[in-house]
Amino acid sequence: MLDIRVANSVVDYALSLGTDFAELFVEQNHVNTIGTLSNEVQAVRSGIDFGIGIRLVYGHKVLYGYTNKVEEDELKRIVTELATKDLRDPLTQKQNFDYRTIKESHPATNTLSKDACIESKIAFLLTADQTARAASNIISQTRGSCLQREQQIEIFNSEGLHTDDTRHYIRASLTAYASDGSEQATGSWNNGGLKGWEIKDEIDAERTGREAARQALVNLRAKACPSGRMPVVLGNGFGGVIFHEACGHLLETTAVAKKASVFHDQMGAMIANPLVNAVDDGTLTNEWGSINIDDEGLETQRTQLIKDGKLTCFLADRLGAAQTGFECTGSGRRQSYRFAPASRMRNTFIESGETELDEMISSIDKGIYASHMGGGSVQPGTGEFNFSVQEGYYVENGKIQYPVKAATLISTGPAVLKEISMVGKDFELACGMCGSVSGAVPTTVGQPSLKVDDILVGGNA
After folding, report:
1. pTM for this one?
2. Do the record's keywords include Hydrolase (predicted)?
3. What's the rounded Cα separation, in Å, for the pair 128 and 126?
4. Residue burial 216-229, b: 16+ Cβ < 10 Å; e: rest
5. Contact status, residue 102 vs residue 297, Cβ threshold 8 Å
6. Cα–Cα dist 132/126, whole Å
7. Residues 6 or more apart whose Cβ sits within 8 Å of residue 116
8. In sequence order, what are the beta bridge partners of 403?
9. Which domains are present in the chain?
């Protein structure tokens, strides 16, 4: 995408201004989105964005700028402006570019550059809508969405790295609204992956509609949730969002290097129940959060974060590794050329255990089964969180009694890790978007069902 002669000249120029490290991140992003409202198509949008991010590093100081132009003079102008206050004699010798071919581990066939498959996607969303509204006459409305994205990147840096990659993302979802005239409730279902629209052969539009409607109907008849400290069973799949938000971010060197994480000095310590094993894996085939290389051009990997309750690794990008002394984990990620990379999660999950879900439920005297988690807020540095329960049930005497609404879970990531007493067999992954200092990136969360012995539940009963 960028003339190698131009890239070579710009990197040489950056080093002549005394920078320790220079990098060009070239990106072309092609996106197609389709939105439906019940049985009508609301919007079909497509667009292409192109730009180049320029990163200069002086010691541990990062300077970053970007442009939509490819001309050599424009790129050097940005370098000059970035380096103005840090100019010094050259310290680093540039290495010649050595192009590195990336192995494609996530094949895609129905890609956006070949065919947007708009009619097929619309048919999927309308079938999901029809199924949801057929489930009950109180399903008043649905909203559907299908996003497909093709991201091409090319990276040059002063250490001689030259590589490129193409990523294909797809995600389809439906939200159903149930209303009885006085109250309204919602339910949703989505699927996604690092692949093309061939995902249609793996996902089921009718199941998407059924699940969205089922959840909306359950929530509509739910009772007020009791409050207080009690045991909670966290459902599998998207239940992993609590570990991702309240613990995962504390294991990124973005926080560790600043000592803004309670885990910054806990390497090798027991930070969780010995039943807990947690992983961040960018290599899982065609998963939403997977990558061939990170946004610094380094190969991704499987990273064991917690082993038998012990902290074993942090997630480190290039700068984080330099600041902390921990090795790079291929975790440098960014939303686009408009952002400098930072250490970020990929597919982050708690590994499977040996306990059946029924055994967890039956062990509860009075508590909550949070089968599906919603969004929430987290306090950076401490992992203090407040998460809503999207679908939950009150449990008494070891049996599910009734669905509850307006339930929230309040605790800290470090506290929850130590309160886990049972880890289930029913492991699942779920896709989402993660926002942080380098923008929003596709990430996967996951876990089997887990029993947390003691957590504060907020409710309005």
Report:
1. 0.95
2. yes
3. 5
4. bbbbbebeebbbee
5. no
6. 10
7. 32, 46, 148
8. 393
9. 4-220 (3.30.2290.10), 223-458 (no CATH)
CA–chain centroid gap for 34, Å, is 21
- The angle that helices 72-83 and 4-16 make with each other, rounded to 10 degrees, is 20
- Please give the Cα distance from 454 to 395 (Å, whole number): 14
Rounded-to-integer distance, Cα 389 and Cα 222, Å: 12
Are the C-beta atoms of residues 413 and 385 closer than 8 Å to each other? yes
- What would the two tokens of residue 279 be? 């992983």
For the chain, give the secondary structure using H, E and C: CCCHHHHHHHHHHHHHCCCCEEEEEEEEEEEEEEEEECCEEEEEEEEEEEEEEEEEEECCEEEEEEECCCCHHHHHHHHHHHHHHHCCCCCCCCCCCEEECCCCCCCCCCCCCCCCCHHHHHHHHHHHHHHHHHCCCCEEEEEEEEEEEEEEEEEEECCCEEEEEEEEEEEEEEEEEEECCCCEEEEEEEEEECCCHHHHHCCCHHHHHHHHHHHHHHHHCCEECCCEEEEEEECCHHHHHHHHHHCHHHHEHHHHCCCCCCCCCCCCCECCCCCCCEEEECCCCCCCCCCCECCCCCECCEEEEEECCEECCCECCHHHHHHHCCCCCCCEECCCCCCCCEECCCEEEECCCCECHHHHHHCCCEEEEEEEEEEEEEECCCCEEEEEEEEEEEEECCEEEEEEECCEEEEEHHHHHHHEEEEECCCEEEEEEEEECCEEEEEEEEECCEEEEEEEEECCC
Torsion angles phi and psi, residue 207, rounded to 5:
-65, -40
Task: Show Cβ contacts of residue 358 under 8 Å, excluding neighbours closer than 6 positions.
Answer: none
402 confidence band (pLDDT: 50, 70, 90) = very high
Distance between CA 363 and CA 350 in Å, rounded? 21
Residue 449 phi, psi (nearest 5): -60, 145
Q: Would you say residue 364 has pLDDT above 90? A: yes
pLDDT in tens, 148-169: 999 999 999 999 999 999 999 9
List pLDDT tens digits, range 404-415: 999 999 999 999
Residues 369 and 58: beta-carbon distance below 8 Å:
no
301 pLDDT above the threshold of 90: yes
Phi, psi values for residue 318, rounded to 5° = -60, -50
Cα dihedral value 436, 440, 444, 449, nearest 10: 50
Contacts of 250 (CB under 8 A, 6+ apart): 256, 261, 262, 263, 381, 383, 413, 414
CB atoms within 10 A of CB 308: 12
Residue matched to tokens 């840090």: 86
